[in-house]
Amino acid sequence: MLHTWLPYILAGIAVGGQYALIAIGYTMVYGILRLINFAHGDVFMWSGLIMVYLITVLPLWVSVILVIIFAIVLGTTIEKVAYRPLRSAPRMSIMISAIGVSYLLQNFALYITGGLTKTYPEIGFLQKTVKIGSATTKMVTVITPVLTIVLVFLLVMLIKHTKIGMAMRAVSRDFETSSLMGIDINRVITVTFVIGCGLAAIGSVLYFSNYTGINPMSGAMPGLKAFVAAVFGGIGSVPGAVVGAFVIGICENLIKGAGWTTFSDAFTFVLLIVILMVKPTGLFGEKNIDKV
Amino acid sequence: MLAIRNLNVHYGGIHALRGIDIDVPDGKIISLIGANGAGKSTTLKAVMGLVPKSDGHIYWDDKEITSLKTKDIVGEGIILCPEGRRIFPDLTVDENIAAGAYLRKDKAEIARDRDWVYELFPRIAGRTWQLGATLSGGEQQMLAVARALMSKPKLLMLDEPSLGLAPLVIKDIFACIQKIREDGVNILLIEQNAKAALDISDYAYVMETGVITMAGPGKALLNDPRVQQAYLGE
Prior knowledge:
The complex is a heterodimer of chains A (292) and B (234). With 292 residues, chain A is mainly α. Chain A has a domain at 18-216. Helix content of chain A is 73%, strand content 4%. Chain A has helices at 2-33, 40-54, 60-83, 91-113, 124-127, 139-161, 163-173, 175-180, 185-211, 220-233, 238-257, 264-278, and strands at residues 118-119, 129-132, 135-138, 213-214. Chain A is globular. Chain B is of the alpha/beta class. Chain B has a single domain (2-88, 153-231), classed as Rossmann fold (3-Layer(aba) Sandwich). Chain B is 38% helix and 26% strand. Chain B is built from 10 helices and 10 strands. Chain B has helices at 40-47, 70-75, 93-100, 107-120, 122-125, 137-149, 167-182, 194-200, 218-222, 225-231, and strands spanning 2-11, 14-24, 29-34, 55-60, 63-64, 78-81, 155-159, 186-191, 203-208, 211-216. In chain B, strands 6-7-8-3-9-10 form a 6-stranded mixed sheet, sandwiched between helices. In chain B, helix 3 runs parallel beside helix 6 (137-149). The radius of gyration of chain B is 17 Å and the shape is globular. Chain A binds chain B through residues 163, 166-167, 169-170, 173-174, 176-184, 289-292, and chain B through 48, 50, 70-71, 74-75, 79-80, 82, 84, 86, 88-91, 95, 98-100, 102-103, 131, 133-135, 137, 140, 147, 151, 164.
């Protein structure tokens, strides 16, 4: 029994970790700006694409670091150019701006790649085979959940126990009062995008090492699934997004294991609809205990 | 000393403040009374740089601070304790206090001021680990004042500290405001509870639809028939 299912569970945990690294960006940006950053999946895709080009001229580790820096610069620039000027505009305007940025990034990628699927570079040690129990799998499957959990732990510590973390929690509740404390709102928002995009870039290295092909639409599906994970966990909550991502990753692969591969993507969206109907605030969503 | 000169603010199409002049000298409690929508909160927000000013100047000890950013105004020693307390509900009492000292780096003095505000408000001192949201209205107001004091202000601006509180709690809070003044903090107080405010004020301004209509020592206004009729319900 376990013998047949174990490979699917392992694959699910791995892809769940990759979704989690993307989902954190969605959930944190939502937590602070109340914005669903539709461009996030495309920053993820661009991180993958840049890696394809960088690796041809630079050593692996330098490329990985540059990819992370690239994603951070891209994400914070998007915030400055497309979101910041609209901060006091109605919420819908900034949302539409996000959709616009998403299409811009996809189309620019289409222009650069000519629409061809690029092959993601093979990172040797991630491809090594390892045996877990009766299953044989790639190193990336083992590294992803471990790295994800370490990074999430560090992030939660940052949010709970540092000054900037406290500022983030304060800003996520009340812009005006936070600025009265002397908190620089723009700086907190920038830090949020730095964290979200940095993690998405790390996620892209792990994800594309697994799937190898990358094209301008490669960010859309994992981005959507990570978004669903964030909603499922309670958008705004970091632990919620991580739990949601693992649940979606594992369920998806179990469905594949059961032979219904065609339905594995549909599952995610059925889950979204069910959650929105049954518990719109998600697993760990804000309870809104405001007192007036 | 804070000097507001010819302050004008437009909100959308509304001319909310029409040339306000207010002085807050050192060592005094100054209050600003008036009906809802008169522009009292807007005045304080304009001082803090939270709403854009269309005209006028704000001086702080002869230094012009009209166009400084909010965090720099806080750095200058001016703080606003906003209307409706606005404490951070999912931060603990201690974290709310720490948030008030966000710009400060002097750890030892921050610790001393923390002891000072807990001494001022013993009711919240025993609840440092509670979430802000779980405090009662009066305790939240105390926390909001304590948090404002943590920025080590030379001027504390209070927006409706008595709002929605029981008379006994209001008395407590006003007693504390006087104590804070004795500790060397100047106070600019906004109140709808005109009697309580005028009682403790050295000087007061009456505001109506964006203009100052009357000004004078607190006690004098308290005995002014026009003020009594309009704001004291007599």
